[in-house]
Write the structure tokens for this entry.
Amino acid sequence: MGDSAAHDSAAQNDRTAEAYAASVVALHALISELPAHPRVTHGRMFNGDGVMVHEKVFAFIGRNGDLVAKVPEPRVLEMVALEAGVPVVMGRRTMREWVRLPAEAGVGAWSELLDEAYSFGLSRPASIR
């Protein structure tokens, strides 16, 4: 790899890291607007910063700074059909209840999706320990 290619790669990595950091800040700000009970906790999902309710992750920041959220499958299909979201693929498997929303979608779209994901998380049974 030439000096120019190495510089371009390093610059891209810097932009990706900056986008990720900005997305994490946005996620934490939006989470503070959700109801206090039950409490939202922070955790990790696929090496990304995530948020949980009832000890289950309902959203996290993808490695490129996108918001990834768990919502009912019909909502994922609707968002994909409207080109408002992208299905989440892990390896060769499409995750049927997970949708990716790019940072460019804006805070309003992220806020709406987080509300939906939080409500969906509340509807699922809590983990038994």
